[in-house]
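sry for the spam today, last one i promise. struct tokens for design, 691 residues
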């Protein structure tokens, strides 16, 4: 395809374009730029996005990678969950500026996305006016303003048009096209939204087939491989986590394939289409938050004209228009229903509704191409159309409610935090569980004129209260032991059981809207119908078991502690197969007080016993007993256990360090690949291979 990219008579200068983008950003999102303590209101921000940001940047500020989050659900492998963005360059914004970078990061990536749409359209021979108008829609349509607080999805989305551009450059054998493809793929993987990455690659391959056919796709293999090698430090631990040690819960229990309800088509016409009883869409329907494509009535008219004038469109316009239509049908579940009818299984990981970003990109590119085809020489009326579209999009942007960022310095939460810390005598966990009524109220917050943060008590990813361990966890992907099993513990025994599950789980404090509890719990204080209770029988962060362990299925072990037939200090259910094998040797550089992240458990007077550490026994932990490597076993279906064979007259120490082999191997592959790539990039050609 020929590239007529320079028309001096109608192409605006770079300076004018920059001013245009800056003006649009300030007009639409000025409040967020001037008040970085605010964020766009959405239930997931307080329960997932904000706690992750807080956890990651505080860990980075301490000087080490956030491989493990010890404060949530008895420990979560943070790196393997992708959306922590551990290696993503944009994460440093949070390290340097804290939560104030939240809005800046979102708007920066929104700008990257918008510019990518503009450049792609210009490269496709669309006039600069139409290209910039579509780029403006990209800044303010429903997909944009509903995702400003969702860093991982926004950051992954930002590089989608650039990957399409790199696909074109690579297949056209343009200089460094392959390296650009690898670079943008690495940025997407480090940004960490697996389904968006998958759908991006599907879109790129489909675009490549349209451009050159099936055979030339082989030219994408090398940059794809380079991108995977460079990002191995991220995805290899994730493969271990997702395929070996976690369970994927349905995103929506009554919609396991997670496709859009048909009524969401209304949001094409009106961003308020789903409002009922004064409750905003972003609260009423989670699918609205993720999948609103509101771009105004004029873009829909243009799309309709495209179908009526289909035969007169260019082949590129037809490709994106058909792709857009198919993706909408896919997200609504129609192709899925057809596949189900012939008994073709579909992996739940695909989640058709998660194609929302690709739908958004195809919609925007289709609009630009159609405008060029239908109106190659527009008159002055184009300015009225532009103004109408912008005004239509600005209304929902201006009306979207905000919340204040939760921070540990907030007096309202600092008081609660201090009160809880004062009663964490055993340095255990706090169990924060709302009642059914409270839970419903927390998940349907109405806009607050005072912009108070919602979810005051339901903070399942912790870290909002600095170094504050919380037993619960929020997320659709959970470890097979750990957060998932902790949920089963609570199901079996919380809170009125006569059993000992709460004791075993190292729950020192319970914070819940319950005014009465069994006698063994001690009331500390009541505030706004929420009561803080102390559990005097908590076993603490670790305990010793002296006796003969038993073997039992995990569910049977849970039931035994739940019904009171087993007690933590008197009964131990031990899996005979180690969760983590003993390290091959003692490594001085990886052992000692200087090793960040190491956990030290001194003990004396114990011989031939078992040390149980009330932290998830996820593979990747390594143990040493006075410099001697030791295996780690699964105790009571959830925790780490190290057998002790020691002289009771001597003092010994057990050292634990989380260093999964998958991460170490992946990091080695990434660094080695990066070094090789730097060497290759200094050459125009290497063995005849065009980079």
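last one done:
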């Amino acid at each position: 395809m020929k590239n007529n990219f320079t028309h001096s008579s109608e192409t605006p200068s770079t300076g004018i374009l920059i001013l245009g983008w800056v003006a649009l950003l300030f007009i639409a999102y000025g409040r967020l730029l001037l008040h970085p303590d605010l964020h766009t209101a959405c239930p997931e921000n307080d329960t997932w996005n904000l706690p992750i940001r807080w956890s990651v940047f505080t860990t980075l500020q301490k000087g080490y990678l956030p491989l493990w989050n010890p404060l949530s659900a008895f420990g979560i492998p943070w790196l393997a969950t992708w959306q922590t963005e551990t290696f993503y360059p944009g994460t440093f914004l949070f390290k340097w500026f804290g939560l104030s970078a939240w809005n800046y990061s979102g708007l920066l990536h929104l700008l990257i996305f918008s510019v990518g749409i503009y450049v792609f359209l210009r490269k496709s021979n669309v006039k600069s006016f139409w290209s910039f108008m579509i780029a403006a829609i990209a800044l303010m349509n429903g997909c944009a303003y509903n995702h400003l607080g969702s860093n991982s999805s926004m950051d992954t989305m930002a590089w989608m048009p650039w990957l399409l551009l790199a696909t074109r450059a690579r297949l056209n054998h343009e200089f460094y096209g392959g390296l650009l493809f690898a670079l943008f793929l690495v940025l997407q993987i480090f940004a960490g939204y697996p389904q968006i990455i998958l759908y991006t690659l599907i879109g790129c391959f489909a675009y490549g087939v349209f451009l050159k056919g099936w055979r030339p796709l082989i030219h994408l293999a090398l940059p794809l491989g380079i991108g995977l090698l460079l990002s191995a430090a991220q995805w290899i631990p994730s493969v271990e986590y997702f395929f070996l040690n976690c369970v994927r819960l349905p995103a929506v229990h009554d919609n396991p394939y997670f496709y859009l309800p048909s009524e969401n088509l209304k949001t094409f016409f009106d961003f308020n289409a789903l409002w009922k009883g004064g409750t905003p869409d972003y609260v009423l329907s989670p699918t609205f938050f993720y999948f609103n494509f509101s771009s105004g009535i004029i873009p829909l008219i243009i799309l309709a004209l495209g179908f009526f004038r289909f035969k007169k469109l260019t082949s590129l316009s037809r490709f994106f228009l058909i792709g857009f239509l198919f993706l909408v049908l896919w997200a609504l579940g129609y192709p899925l229903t057809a596949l189900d009818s012939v008994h073709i299984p579909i992996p739940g990981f695909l989640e058709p509704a998660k194609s929302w970003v690709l739908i958004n990109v195809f919609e925007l590119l289709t609009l630009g191409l159609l405008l060029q085809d239908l109106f190659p020489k527009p008159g002055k009326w184009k300015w009225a159309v532009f103004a109408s579209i912008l005004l239509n999009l600005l209304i929902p942007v201006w009306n979207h409610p905000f919340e204040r960022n939760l921070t540990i310095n907030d007096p309202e939460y600092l008081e609660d935090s201090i009160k809880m810390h004062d009663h964490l005598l055993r340095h255990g966990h706090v169990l924060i569980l709302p009642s059914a009524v409270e839970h419903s109220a927390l998940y349907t917050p109405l806009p607050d004129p005072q912009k108070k943060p919602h979810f005051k008590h339901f903070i399942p990813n912790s870290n909002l209260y600095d170094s504050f361990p919380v037993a619960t966890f929020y997320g659709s992907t959970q470890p097979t032991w750990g957060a998932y099993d902790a949920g089963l513990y609570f199901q079996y025994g919380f809170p009125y059981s006569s059993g000992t599950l709460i004791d075993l789980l190292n729950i020192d404090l319970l914070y819940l809207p319950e005014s009465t509890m069994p006698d063994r719990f001690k009331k500390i204080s009541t505030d706004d119908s929420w009561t803080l209770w102390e559990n005097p029988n908590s076993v603490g962060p670790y305990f010793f078991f002296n006796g003969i362990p038993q073997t039992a299925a995990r569910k049977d072990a849970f039931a035994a502690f739940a019904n009171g037939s087993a007690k933590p200090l008197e009964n131990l259910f031990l899996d005979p197969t180690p969760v983590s094998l003993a390290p091959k040797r003692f490594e001085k550089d990886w052992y000692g007080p200087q090793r960040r992240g190491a956990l030290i458990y001194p003990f004396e007077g114990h011989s031939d016993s078992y040390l149980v550490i009330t932290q998830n026994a996820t593979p990747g932990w390594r143990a040493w007993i006075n410099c001697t490597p030791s295996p780690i076993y699964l105790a009571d279906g959830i925790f780490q256990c190290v057998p002790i064979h020691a002289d009771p007259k001597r003092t010994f120490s057990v050292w634990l360090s989380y260093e999964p082999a998958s991460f170490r191997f992946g990091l080695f592959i990434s660094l080695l690949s990066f070094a090789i790539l730097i060497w290759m990039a200094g050459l125009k050609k290497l063995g005849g291979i065009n980079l």
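The chain has a mean pLDDT of 82. ok im logging off now
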